Amino acid sequence: MKPTVTVFIFLSLFGLNFSLYRKHIFVNEIMTWENAQKYCRKHHDDLSTVSKEEAQQLSTNPENNNAHFWIGLHMISNNLENWSWSGGEDQKIDYWDIRQPNDIAEQCGCVRRNTAKLHNVVCSLPLPFYCMEVFVPILVHQNKTWDESLNYCRQNYIDLVSLSSQINMEGVINNTITSQTAYVWTGLRFMVGHWFWVSGDNLQYKAWSTVGDPQCPARNLHCGALDRSRNIWQPKDCEEKLNFVCLRKP
Ligand SMILES: *[C@@H]1O[C@H](CO)[C@@H](O)[C@H](O)[C@H]1NC(C)=O
Ligand SMILES: *[C@@H]1O[C@H](CO)[C@@H](O)[C@H](O)[C@H]1NC(C)=O
Ligand SMILES: *[C@@H]1O[C@H](CO)[C@@H](O)[C@H](O)[C@H]1NC(C)=O
């Protein structure tokens, strides 16, 4: 049976000194931890590595009705104190729920949705899970129109960047310090009556310069740029030539 993948995507940026994007994809199919890991490694990068903030974000996913979901956490060498991530990241594991981890036989880690905290459970438990794809934002020091920027990113890297959370914004802003332009292009576009991320990411988080979406942007203001000094999005003329931020594989 082919698992159904719900495309409910969060883009979370983490890593304190380097900007690493983790895109989490919810797989609404129940599997054991090992099978979930196999599935993620086949179709994406790995089972999700999840920080405390990401766990909170993922726990609010309305597509998930299960009380628990798998992430890439597992016990190492039968030691209750020794856990690591399937993807090998050096992400802190510091948000266990009270009295967890609590049983040496429970060697896989999941998130309990109503507390957004870690629990250890037996690995054979069938649970839905999150897979991740990992990217790094890269500032391109070239002045291009929005369309040219999109083409450049898709030809040379993966896509124009999405800024779908506060932490994500901060990471990109940190990444654009050397930009030659005050604004940089993002993957934000207005077409047939609404704004969207060209990567298909969720547009729940918003940081527009005006309150709410610019519902009816002027005809020539249909592309979204990041204002690096004010940390906000600004609708701009797509023909303006700006530096821009792409996402690449690490
Ligand atoms: C945790 O497991 C790794 C890999 O097996 C091992 O190298 C390390 O010494 C272990 N750490 C502790 C505290 O047991
Ligand atoms: C891009 O535009 C900025 C501002 O107009 C300018 O300072 C910079 O030199 C330009 N960069 C390139 C590569 O042409
Ligand atoms: C961005 O840079 C600031 C200042 O150096 C730092 O405090 C913050 O943690 C960085 N944010 C991210 C997401 O990298």
TrEMBL record:
Keywords: Signal. Residues 1-19 form the signal peptide. It holds the Pfam family Lectin_C. Gene3D superfamilies: Mannose-Binding Protein A, subunit A (3.10.100.10). InterPro entries: C-type_lectin-like, C-type_lectin-like/link_sf, CTDL_fold. It comes from the Eukaryota. This is C-type lectin domain-containing protein.
